[in-house]
Design a protein that fits this description.
six-stranded mixed β-sheet; four-stranded antiparallel β-sheet; 9 helices; 37% helix; elongated
Length: 286
């Protein structure tokens, strides 16, 4: 019993340390799941916590509503009702989006191998079967973006498994693109796609041509180094480029030609390139 109490005391100490550094935390019960809503909040009767797209804030003092219960308030974390939860806690979780980070949850060795080939290196935290790769910047969460890969950021929680190793890098467009599904019902135009001039003709927010050149070069490399799922890789690469530069007017015919050339060198037809570009353009609402 003493050993169990010590472990649960460590959960609270870890939570308080994280909260003090600005990371919103919550307790998890056995099975790595949040504590259930109290009777006042059951079936969302209270209207839900803020940011849960439900009417009205919840002022419940208990650790209800899963990720939305995560807090940095030390008084809340040590309050009597939370103390009861900590006594039964099996782990500590945090809200990545609330800490302005994104967790790429790699569930197995195959997913880790894929990430090492396709994503920039960043801080890595070992998990039971795989790794969490953590990037600076928040985005929408999405499960099963590819085999063995989930994205946890806003409106999600992740287990705290330690600080990990390696320098944390900025959230790349390649990760953002993973969360956007290729639309299945879009019928692309049969003609070749013209290079977008940029919505509103705004200046590039990245300010330097060097940023764009590096982005195009990395996109070419991502396509060239793909060993499988070529069509999906081409689509996601086009999506990443357009999400970064499709609205600012900095893309030229030469840039798009380089991307199409790289894709065709991997076996894509000109029509497939056109389809992927059109679908990415449509998915982003450009």
């Amino acid at each position: 019993m003493t050993q169990l109490t010590d472990v649960r005391g460590e959960h609270l100490r870890a939570a308080l340390s994280l909260a003090s550094s600005g990371v919103p935390v919550l307790p998890l019960r056995a099975g790595k799941v949040p504590f259930g809503n109290c009777r006042h909040c059951a079936n969302n009767a209270c209207g839900g916590r803020p940011n849960m797209k439900a009417p009205g804030p919840c002022i419940c003092p208990a650790p209800c509503h899963a990720w939305a219960a995560a807090t940095t308030n030390l008084h809340v974390l040590t309050s009597p009702v939370w103390a009861a939860a900590w006594r039964h806690a099996a782990a500590v979780a945090y809200h990545p989006g609330g800490a302005r980070v994104t967790v790429v949850d790699l569930d197995d060795a195959a997913a880790i191998a894929w990430a090492r080939q396709n994503l920039p290196a960043t801080r890595a935290v070992p998990t039971t079967r795989g790794e969490h790769w953590i990037y600076w910047g928040a985005m929408a969460s999405s499960n099963a973006v590819r085999p063995g890969v989930d994205i946890k950021s806003t409106m999600a929680y992740a287990r705290w498994l330690g600080p990990g190793t390696g320098a944390m890098t900025e959230l790349p467009d390649a990760v953002r693109a993973l969360a956007v599904r290729e639309p299945s019902m879009v019928r692309p135009a049969p003609q070749a796609v013209a290079v977008p001039a940029g919505v509103g003709g705004r200046d590039c927010p990245h300010r330097t041509a060097t940023y764009l050149e590096r982005g195009i070069t990395m996109a070419e490399q991502r396509i060239t180094e793909a060993r499988s799922t070529i069509h999906a890789t081409v689509y996601r690469t086009f999506l990443a480029v357009l999400s970064a530069h499709g609205r600012c007017g900095c893309l030229t015919d030469a840039h798009v030609a380089r991307l199409f050339t790289a894709a065709q060198a991997k076996g894509e037809t000109a029509r497939h390139c056109t389809d992927a570009w059109t679908n990415a353009y449509t998915a982003l609402g450009l």
